[in-house]
């Protein structure tokens, strides 16, 4: 079987396995990919082609490498999956570069150009603007770009690198996700994909939830996430992500709330940017060592695992090490939780408050506060 793509020629690829199955080996050269089922982690060897300019202006931190080994990023919960066949063939998902970094393919201009320039502006060493500098703690760190076969990639901090059993949620923010440049048809289409977002102000684009009873992950894709409504967002959506109804991770929620309130303050005070189609990536550690008796963990005792718990293969593929009683996870007194803003292809200047994002953020905070009131 041969399938021609915009970026690569793929041969002997079973798309079902390629896009969803873990434990398959791939070798990608400049023009071909050969697939072999060998029961281990996915690996790819990418060779660079001709360098191309993505958007206007000087590129910072660009790297052209003749041979770089990367792995497919199995922790991705939303967006375009690497190699997945869809109506827009050739779209690339995220790749795992190692050393705490992932690669995100730049979209075609102007979207990819906007996202690249936004990262460059925020993380520029000469940036002295307090508003954008304050955003750095809410975003994955930017480490320049790389190019493979004419495809530009952002090099970004891998937020889940040091998690053992990460639970991950992609929450797209805003009642309106189409930007001001969208056609009426495009705006209507975006609204139709998730009607409840117009009320909630946010939508679930994907989740990966560790199930301690089975030692497996439950995945919720964007199709299921878009079907969530005001009636079941707690029971099947954001609540489910935090263990509702059996073992709600209130310890995690309390820390997350403090971070979101900090972000809420930033949005309520800034008058520079409006964000459309941007998401919050929420990650927390599901693994809890039995040795840990710190306050706040009792509510989630059913999720505790022994100190010699085997780490899930997906976590180990992304650089996490196997846990034991001497691990950082077991020695920490507070649960590990992080939240970052991601996806900046539709960021626009504005002189007014970004009420679209802010209203959704406020409503998300209210849902989390409701979870704290439940008994479990």
How would you explain this protein's 3D organization?
- There is one protein chain.
- The protein has helices at 15-20, 111-123, 130-135, 184-193, 197-200, 222-226, 233-241, 250-269, 313-317, 328-331, 355-373, and strands at 2-4, 9-11, 25-28, 33-36, 44-46, 62-63, 68-72, 94-98, 101-105, 142-148, 151-157, 166-173, 202-211, 216-220, 273-275, 279-285, 337-342, 347-349.
- It has a 7-stranded mixed sheet, with helices on one face.
- The chain folds into 2 domains: 2-157, no CATH class; 166-373, D-amino Acid Aminotransferase, Chain A, domain 1 (2-Layer Sandwich).
- It has 11 helices and 18 strands.
- The protein starts with a strand and ends with a helix.
- The radius of gyration is 21 Å and the shape is globular.
- With 376 residues, the protein is of the alpha+beta class.
Draw up the topology in text.
Elements (H helix, E strand, L loop, with lengths): L1 E3 L4 E3 L3 H6 L4 E4 L4 E4 L7 E3 L15 E2 L4 E5 L21 E5 L2 E5 L5 H13 L6 H6 L6 E7 L2 E7 L8 E8 L10 H10 L3 H4 L1 E10 L4 E5 L1 H5 L6 H9 L8 H20 L3 E3 L3 E7 L27 H5 L10 H4 L5 E6 L4 E3 L5 H19 L3
Parallel strand pairs: 6-10
Antiparallel strand pairs: 1-2, 3-4, 5-7, 7-8, 8-9, 9-11, 10-11, 12-13, 12-16, 13-14, 15-18, 16-17
